[in-house]
């Protein structure tokens, strides 16, 4: 056994005694039992008493070891971490990475931690790819546990396969708040991991997509759950504003408006699943390359339950010809569509539109109620994408009750307010469409 005694000069009371039991191989006194390994430190306090501070360095992966104390890692010029990539390599489970607002060109990173928060402070941190990427996938790869990302802007992700993403999300539970994705080949792209969950709140997506309809502002494949709230997706480059193949999809209180862009679908749910689409403003551009605002099950129904709840949305079709609000594929699915306001030449219920041999309409069991068609001049300022009903509108105070579905409340208690906000309603919802409070409709 070896003992190391260390004493601060001139101050016996603040002495620190460190005892290190190194193991039997280092025992020097015959007959003593084997040393148990490192036990910790004995410290003398100001009052002269000795206390033991256990510090057991367990092997990696030993769940019995005490968790490391969470830290705050600051990415600031001329300080400890001058790049995001360096902080990503050093971060541990439970840490917070704070990034000073500003530009970080080519600062690509991979995140694998759990219970990690990454946030910009003092404004947004802007990550332009500048020709760089990780693993030929994008600016960031997230393949960890629960990771929260706040106030980060991702732009310019491009890779050889033409599907570079601002974030390539591979597994875990990713939460995005107040983020932005501009001019990437995909804004965010998930991987097929059926235990993963993705939440996006109060974020903006614009001009993402390589062109040709295969890359999108938001592309979610087969994951457990995807939730989008309070967000603004617009002007996709040939692809979808939002695409989700998740088992369960929540599209709640968003603005999905292509405006004068050239997107394909505004909301594409090609594999079915359970989808709650509530309180959204969804608008198709006159220049849309595909005539459908919303699709459901068009690539076949993958999941064991396939239910679409289309509740209190404002659907605006500005396409000059052949525009459709909803495209369905026959199969083991159902739909409930109530209290949606429609502007455009189409009807929401496929059974109400004429069909031809060359273009049959898919029909699935469904309920279509209280979905009135309106004129554009019935809205306050449609030229500014403000679809608040004018005072005295015939559609005010005509809403019916929505009830529940799978214990999920279908009656809106909030609404979208531009830009990228969700506000709580001060009184019970009473109108059809997405906009209940006049204050919320201002654009």
Structural key phrases:
disordered N terminus, Pectate Lyase C-like, 1 helix, 4-stranded antiparallel sheet, globular, mainly beta, single chain, 443 residues, 2 domains
Write up this protein.
The protein contains 1 helix and 37 strands. Helix content is 2%, strand content 40%. The protein has a 27-stranded parallel β-sheet that branches. It is an all-beta fold and 443 residues long. β36 and β37 form a beta hairpin. The protein folds into 2 domains: 51 residues, no CATH class; 370 residues, Single-stranded right-handed beta-helix, Pectin lyase-like (Pectate Lyase C-like).
Q: Flag low-confidence runs.
A: 1-30, 34-41, 52-65
Number of domains: 2
Q: Please state the second-level CATH architecture of the largest domain.
A: 3 Solenoid
Tally the beta strands: 37
What number is the mean pLDDT? 86
Helix content: under 10%
Quaternary structure annotation: single chain
Indicate the CATH topology of the largest domain. Answer: Pectate Lyase C-like
Distance from N terminus to C terminus (CA atoms, Å) equals 75 Å
Give the helix/strand class: mainly beta
Put simply, the count of helices is 1
Q: Summarize the biggest pleated sheet.
A: 27 strands, parallel
